[in-house]
Amino acid sequence: MNALLATLLFCTTLLGVAAVPPNETLKKCTSNELGPPLLTETKTREFIASLRTIPLLKETYDGHTAYKSPLGEIIFYKQWNKFEDEYVSFFYPDTPNIRVEVFKSPNAPAAMSGALCTSNHKPIRTYWIMHGEHAYCAILLERTDRFDDGICFCGAIAFNAYRFHNNSLYRFSFLASGETKKIQIRNGNLCAVFLEWTHLPIHQNVYNRIALSLCLKGKPCDRQALMKNLETTYGLSSLLGFLETGMSKKYIIDILGSPIKKIDDTLCFHRRYERKDCTYRIPLENGRFTGDLSNCVKCRDLPPKRGTSAWIYEMTVCESSDDYDLEPLTTGNIKYIFDRFCELAPGKAHYQWVDLCEAMSALAKNGHTDPRVPGIVRKHLMDCTKWQFGAVDFLKDHAPQDTVELLVKLADKQMACAAEMEPDDWAAANALLDLFDILNAIGSDHAEYDRLIVKAMTHPHSRYRFEGYLMWNELAPHKAIPLLRAGLQDRCGYVREEAARAFAQETGTIEDLTWLKQRLDEEKNQNVRWLIEDAIERISRTSETSDQPAQQPGNCPIPTQATIVHHIMIDLEC
Fold first, then answer.
1. Contact at 8 Å (CB) between 242 and 282?
2. 214-246: pLDDT as tens digits
3. CA-CA distance, 325 to 454, in Å (whole number)?
4. Does residue 4 surpass a pLDDT of 80?
5. Backbone angles phi and psi of 320, in degrees to 5
């Protein structure tokens, strides 16, 4: 009983909510509020466990035996070192095998790519905690006023918990199984982002302990300002991550604001966020939060304003809504949609431009056309500030005259725009990457098809080279193999990985063995090394059982973007 009481006392002190009077719930952080930055092994487990009390999570991690490091390192470190610079301080295990490497922008290596998730980072500092030659843990420090919300393909986030700790606001992103997937820390305009645990060979508890020791240097954080920023950015749902099982009605109101009503010991809140109308029901028992958020949030979509790009898209592409009835697609509405397209198209970028082009395709498929539309789409096709895959599909299917020649010019124009960007700025290049759709529309029988793939594979921007190497097997062997050999020496790890994968799975002869062994000795990226080892084994085995050369590249249709992402996810064993 005394041990349980001590644990509860520790957790409430650490969370900085239940251990303070109600009128201080949102007070500013102080440097000594939560004790020393490096928590003990036991307290780290207790703190993370306290965040898993929401029944949305099914805890399977026991803190001792699950997910031991594949590096074979001990799980519990007795000695820890402190790293510190002008921005951060944090602790890491004190062992001869582990060290910290720091990279300053723009020389920091890419920490993730579209193959792993949708995030693209531009850190001012990148801290790599290395275990020998392995990336044991990585921390990206960025200047930003929000958390990173990229979608990672290595397990969906079930719940985000927020706590104030070490003068900063922490976000703990949990998998449905209960493991911490990702931790981020914000204070002022700085955000420290820990690379997803699912990508790392580090033990779960060591990952959590390093993150909980991190301090962002600067003034104590303003809790009220940060919580207001959370609600403005993500809606009231984000503030649910501050709730704790057993929290009193007073503390809940301090966090969520005044309820609209109370029904049968349940607090009811209402908010409108973007195009959603939401109600929140927080269940109480004897005046305290039960911890059950499973049926807390009920949202319904609000209809878009007539004449907007969202309204046009829903009227033509969606054709139905569970929350409201759309207007009938009458002759008058169709004419109005075409008129609005002509008015809206010049100023719309990215998703809105794509939606408008898809709306035009949907109308054309049902026999509704307007002579003004193809000219407007062609006029804006060369705009490098717009995603063009919706425009490409419209022209290919509904205005094919001279479209192929125009798409060849578009591919060249996009690659020219990318050549003017920072060579490794993947975030900027995202706005241009319609290469798969463009080449699909051009077709493999076109005279310029091979040239465009080779141009991508030899492009100065690393993201375009990576995209080009995903299509290496569209080229004849005499064109592809020299490029694959060059790709194994590329400065971009993702390009080297795709080149190595080609040798590991499909191409190469006995003549490549000596050269591949040399590359293996020089390669530092573990993923690339594994693929080179597979290539050496495959080619050696093939040469022993056959007098014929190893299989050469074939002619396969260009895969879709989704197929490529799925293929990479499997190969990376995310």
1. no
2. 999 988 888 889 999 999 998 888 999 998 888
3. 50
4. no
5. -160, 160
